[in-house]
Amino acid sequence: MAQANITGDMVGSTFPHPDKWKWYHYFTFNVDHKVIGIQYLVTSFIFYLIGGAMALTMRAELATPDADLLDPNFYNALLTNHGTIMIFLWIVPGAIGGFGNYLVPLMIGARDMAFPKLNALAFWVTVPAGFLIVGSFFFGGAQAGWTSYPPLSLITANTAQSMWILAIVLAGTSSILGAVNFIITIWKMRVPSMGWNDMPLFCWAIMATSVLALFSTPVLAAGLILLLFDINFGTSFFRPEAGGDVVMYQHLFWFYSHPAVYLMILPIFGIMSEVIPVHARKPIFGYKAIAYSSLTICLVGLFVWVHHMFTSGTPPWMRMFFTVSTLIVAVPTGVKIFSWVATLWGGKIRYTSAMLFAIGLLAMFVLGGLSGVTLGTAPVDIHVHDTYYVVAHFHYVLFGGSVFGIYAGLYHWFPKITGRMLNEPLGKVHFILTFIGTNLTFLPMHELGLKGMPRRVAMYDPQFQYINVICTIGAFLLGISILPFLVNAIWSWSNGPKASGNPWDAKTLEWTTDSPPIIENWEVLPVMTEGPYAYGEEPEPAEVSS
Predict the structure, then answer these.
(1) Burial (Cβ within 10 Å: 0-12, 13-18, ≥19) of residue 393
(2) pTM summary value
(3) Backbone angles phi, psi at 518, to 5 degrees
(4) Rounded to an integer, what distance in angstroms lies between the CA atom of residue 57 and that of residue 411?
(5) Which helix (H) or strand (E) holds 113?
(6) Do residues 231 and 162 make contact, with C-beta atoms less than 8 angstroms apart?
(7) Which of 34, 83, 175, 464 has its CA 20 to 30 A from that of 109?
């Protein structure tokens, strides 16, 4: 082992080295947390490609002011399902289900999750959700936007809209099952030598994410089920002509869907806190501040949802309260940003592909956060609401934040997951194309929004065409940027140079077992003898065997 901190067995016994899983086990109801993590990662990436293809199709339409490529109804269906897939089938299951399932037991010294069968069920619930979303296009596709506000979702209601609702309820069920499992696993299954303040920051992030999911997800499910009843059974919860309250749906939707931003970004913050100290060769700056700020975001994040509704007839006192709460939630986020920058300061930085994506995320997320502060203030939000300024903001946060973070995690833990090293030159090409494509696509959208171009429309004023052409070029560059990663990942998984157990010379427990880990994770359970970020004067990382 590259790190000699496995000194005993919590249960006082050893067992023979088990066989590895065969390829076909990854297509079964497997209860191994590592298999489930890979199932989440691969499945969510497939949906990322589907959602990305939808985005490119929409951007091709938007290269011209007229609807000359797509039927407007089909454009609306693409718009609705692109956002839905990217949130509910890519970022949330990829970041939480994928990295969370694979890493949490390894990081806390456990052999598996607390409830392995529940864990497998949580993954397989997402599969029919994906089929429902894709299959809805055979019925015209849901066309009311990813928010599906009534009365629009009632006017356009069809079989596809009901399929869309059922898909989101299934995805939410998966989140709830996973959240229960993560909380119990982290709380009860850490090795005895690991106290709360010895736990990797990724585990803190998953804990905060899980608590937030338990509080917020059932509210969304309730709202969507009521909407489903309105569409199919003649009820009038949200039908204004029958006394229903359409604004109540917005409250139910955003009570979950703004915390969903933190469901997507908190695990990414955890990934950042693992990648940066390893590749900067420095202890993390402000461990407790980063850990507790995750819990603070979890708490304050439940009280900011109304800033999405400043144009929905909200009273002045409500606008004031939620403006202040929105600005407050930026404080614990800023604590993390400054801690990561302080960790980088004076470090022996290795500009690996993982580190490049982590640094790129810092730049993208700060820019998205600044525009988010402006949107959190009622006067500005009322001016730019439902314009491309909002589109620019949330893509900088979610693509420049979450997707960059997922890539950083994939490059960092790929050797642990596969036992092979990714090609670094290809990784750097991937980063450069992604970084340029992200800024070329989304930076000009700020100007589009400030000039008044509305979002969610296929046809627009010709004065906006030249900026839309730039955005479309950037979007196709983003599409091209995925190719070097796919080539790299597929080739390296089977033919890349073999990785040692700890190629980055990291300190957390997942690096103390084989790469990839054996089925039971360790032959002898680990005992912590040093902190997860105890970097000092150390030799260079071990060479990777070929």
Answers:
(1) buried
(2) 0.93
(3) -70, 170
(4) 29
(5) none
(6) yes
(7) 175
